[in-house]
Design goal:
Elements: H1 2-14, E1 25-31, H2 48-54, E2 58-60, E3 63-64, H3 70-79, H4 83-86, H5 102-108, E4 112-117, E5 134-137, H6 142-155, H7 158-174, H8 178-191, E6 198-204, H9 253-283, E7 290-296, E8 301-302, E9 308-309, H10 316-319, E10 320-321, E11 323-326, E12 334-336, E13 340-341, H11 345-352, H12 367-370, E14 380-388, E15 392-400, E16 404-412, E17 418-427, H13 448-466, H14 478-482
Parallel strand pairs: 1-6, 1-7, 2-12, 3-13, 4-5, 4-6
Antiparallel strand pairs: 2-11, 3-10, 7-11, 8-9, 14-15, 15-16, 16-17
Helix pairs in contact: 1-9, 6-7, 8-9
């Protein structure tokens, strides 16, 4: 009965039937770990609610994330800054004080703001809670886990704090949280006065591995599978990937096909709850005046480039994300081919609210494109900071246009100088799978694409230094305290307790404005 009611109300809303006038509403939905090529907004059989929403919405076919994992990607969503600019690329660093986020922008303008988070990397202490009237942990038992974590910190028991964080991590992979977020959203919508402007943020973690969707979504996309492999403990399962073996990929094609079907099932399960959220807004008379933005934070790799999961590289399977905007001011179905990014979410929300985006944002308001106006093409910059046992401290940067993409991996040599480990350029028109680099490490720096990338980073670097950068210590999260004796575990190459020389928010932008120091090929 509940499901039928939800679908019926959503259908009613999209045919234009209105209820009492309401305040403006913005609903920002972040679907964790969802690839753009898996979530098809036109596939009514797989994703009926979003397909129906898309009949009055705009789908952006090339939406690019700023990184390949949750924390920096959401920091970009909330600030309109690419990852190298906001610098939130390690577990121990938060959005800089003074950087205006979406909820702060709206709250200061009188909006009621409410959000729900369901994975540790969207926790409030990273700066995401700033500006929210309520920012709620949607994990099952999440508030109790948070209490245990705070108590351990207060006692100085860092071993216990680490164990509680492990509970967050492991429990989040196995948890089912979309129902918790729906319940919170429904309660908020029911209690906030209808004439109040309302911002809602829903982070939905269920598509993230493990891939264990409940029935009927567990068999929906692969009903004929007869094997024994399931999606439990996906990342740790040595029947899928074993770094001690060669090749490390151990899973066969048919089992991998099943894993991908389970992944799609998780997305379909989560999409069902998106439909219920939309129905809740319609029941409250709000949907007709609601800006709905549905996107992903990053994608997922299924061995396209030799690995699984995410946070390993910057190829398109992890950078291209779904993005649809349903703007009540322009209810025509459209597809936009021009490249956009997560940096554009904040200015788009600001524009809908009649506000100016903060000076720190580098994105653009997409509402003109939603209304059918031409959209200028722009390159997108993404980055990934990591610690590697063999390379030490290294980072990956990408520069993507609609036609081509540059990816470079760099590290610091023993002298503390930048050294190019790998360089690739791909023709995305002829080689969308990024399988054949047009250059080698020794030739990439001599190409026009490399020069374009350097110029783009120089522009970002100049902006970085005009923003009065906040020191890393002033942006620390509790993670830094918990892992103070093991900074390498957080991605540092320096000795325990030592602040690495080049690590300022962002690593690739620490130098004064001007040309980047020469790299060693």
């Amino acid at each position: 009965m509940r499901r039928a009611l939800s679908v019926g109300l959503l259908s009613l809303a999209l045919t234009g039937c209105s209820q009492a006038p309401a305040g403006r509403t913005i609903l920002l939905i972040s679907l964790d770990s969802v690839r753009a090529d898996t979530l098809d907004f036109g596939d009514a059989a797989a994703f009926p609610h979003l397909a129906e929403l898309a009949t009055k919405g705009t789908v952006f076919d090339q939406a690019i994330s700023s990184s390949s994992w949750t924390l920096p990607a959401h920091a970009t969503m909330f600030t309109g800054e690419p990852a190298p600019l906001h610098g939130v690329e390690f577990d121990d660093i938060a959005i800089a004080p003074g950087t205006t986020t979406i909820p702060e922008l709206l709250h200061d303008a009188g909006w009621t703001t409410a959000g729900w988070w369901t994975g540790w990397y969207t926790a409030g202490e990273f700066g995401f809670e700033r500006g929210f009237d309520t920012y709620t942990n949607g994990m099952t038992g999440g508030r109790e886990i948070e209490r245990r974590y705070r108590d351990a910190l207060a006692r100085g028991d860092m071993d216990m704090a680490k164990r509680v964080l492990a509970t967050f991590d492991i429990g989040g992979h196995r948890d089912i949280t979309s129902p918790n977020v729906l319940a919170g959203l429904e309660a908020t919508v029911e209690t906030v006065d209808g004439d109040k402007d309302l911002f809602l943020f829903a982070h939905l973690f269920d598509p993230h591995y493990d891939y264990i969707p409940p029935a009927p979504f567990d068999t929906k996309f692969d009903p004929d599978y007869k094997g024994s492999l399931d999606g439990h403990d996906f990342f740790e399962n040595r029947a899928i990937f074993d770094s001690t073996q060669s090749p490390a990929r151990r899973i066969g094609d048919r089992d991998l096909q099943h894993i991908e079907a389970l992944y799609k099932g998780e997305i379909a399960f989560t999409e069902d709850y998106v439909g219920r959220m939309l129905a809740s807004l319609e029941a409250a008379g709000r949907l007709e005046s609601t800006l709905v933005i549905v996107t992903g934070d990053h994608g997922e790799e299924f061995f396209e480039h030799g690995n699984r999961g995410h946070r390993t590289g910057l190829y398109d399977e992890v950078l291209r994300v779904p993005l649809m905007i349903r703007d009540p001011r322009s209810l025509e179905a459209r597809h936009v081919a021009e490249q956009v990014g997560l940096v554009d979410i904040l200015p788009t929300i600001a524009g809908f609210a009649g506000l100016e985006a903060p000076a720190t944002s580098t994105g653009v308001d997409l509402s003109a494109a939603v209304a059918g106006q031409p959209l200028a093409t722009r390159p997108m910059i993404s980055s990934l900071m990591q610690h590697h046992n063999e390379l030490g401290y290294f980072f990956v940067e990408s520069y993507r246009t609609e036609a081509a993409k540059v990816i470079r991996s760099m590290t610091l040599n023993e002298a503390g100088e930048l050294e190019l480990v790998r360089g690739e350029i791909f023709d995305l028109k002829l080689d969308p799978g990024e399988t054949r680099s047009l250059v080698t490490k020794s030739t990439i720096m001599d190409t026009p694409r490399w020069a374009e990338m350097e110029a783009a980073f120089d522009k970002l670097r100049t902006k970085f230094h005009t923003l009065s950068p906040v020191s890393r210590l002033d942006r620390s999260t509790t993670i830094r305290e918990v892992f103070a004796s093991d900074l390498g575990g957080l991605g540092y190459a320096g000795e325990a307790g030592e602040e690495p020389e080049l690590v300022s928010p962002g690593l690739s932008l620490p130098w004064p404005p001007g040309p980047r120091p020469a790299l060693e090929k």
